[in-house]
């Protein structure tokens, strides 16, 4: 996979995608969004890839937002289209059956925070800074921030961040549940890769069905969500991984999952 604004490396079943526009703090323009979408279509189809890590190039920024220079002259209809493209990309990431980890190496602002919100797990470097500063530019978050941030950290905290445009550091992001963990910057990728490796060593069907259950279940009321969980739990028993996983426990040995 070769792209203009993304670097993609595949290592032991993990795809590492680096948003690579360091001169613009890895800001998301149309081209980068289209490339990200294309990359996720490929990751979803490629059986070798089991976990995806998204990070930003350099040490200053994960992604400092949607590209302000590209947005400044847009008409209302063009801006709506741009927001829809952003939504489509975040949906591809969220709907990807494989777990997606954001490795946040600096500023995750506006569309960058929204990209992190579209991922399943957020690992923050100590220098990570989060925020939805769109109100400083006379706009609102447009890649799902008004929705996903409130769903993750609660309405009150999301409103505060979005109304004030304030930036928060990694410790505060961790405290409010926006970051899953904080690590020194020089350990960010290794920690994220180790997490990917831990996930890869589990039954892949179980991990994917768990993602599906959590993601889709959260849109339902508890009773329907639990019904849905029961269906997916039942489906696990159609896999040889379930037979192997439980047999290995009973035989007191390590399970050898084949992803079948
Ligand atoms: N879009 C385009 N270019 C950007 C950018 C962005 N979001 N963020 C930074 N850059 C560019 C700067 O223009 C600058 O370019 P030049 O060297 O050509 O001047 C370069 O990256 C370096 O930036 P700074 O000189 O500003 O670096 P800094 O260290 O002083 O500040 C920063 C870093 C705090 C991240 C600051 O750049 C900043 O505030 N960026 C904008 C953040 C922002 O408002 N993001 C939200 C965008 S709107 C959005 O995302 C809408 C949406 O929801 C879809």
Keywords:
260 residues, alpha/beta, 2-enoyl-CoA Hydratase, Chain A, domain 1, Lyase 2-enoyl-coa Hydratase, Chain  A, domain 2, 2 domains, 6-stranded mixed β-sheet, 4-stranded mixed β-sheet, 11 helices, 16% strand, binds acetoacetyl-coenzyme A
What does this structure look like?
By secondary structure, this protein is of the alpha/beta class. It has 2 domains: 6-200, 2-enoyl-CoA Hydratase, Chain A, domain 1; 204-250, Lyase 2-enoyl-coa Hydratase, Chain  A, domain 2. It is built from 11 helices and 10 strands. The protein has helices at residues 30-45, 68-71, 76-95, 111-118, 145-153, 155-164, 170-175, 188-200, 204-217, 222-236, 240-250, and strands at 6-11, 14-19, 51-56, 61-63, 100-104, 107-109, 121-125, 129-131, 168-169, 181-183. The strands form 2 sheets. A 6-stranded mixed sheet has the order 1-2-3-5-7-10, sandwiched between helices. Strands 4-6-8-9 form a 4-stranded mixed sheet. Bound molecules: acetoacetyl-coenzyme A (CAA). Acetoacetyl-coenzyme A binds at residues 24-25, 27, 64-69, 86, 107, 109-111, 114, 133-134, 137, 141-143, 145. Acetoacetyl-coenzyme A (CAA) binds next to α2, β6 and α4.
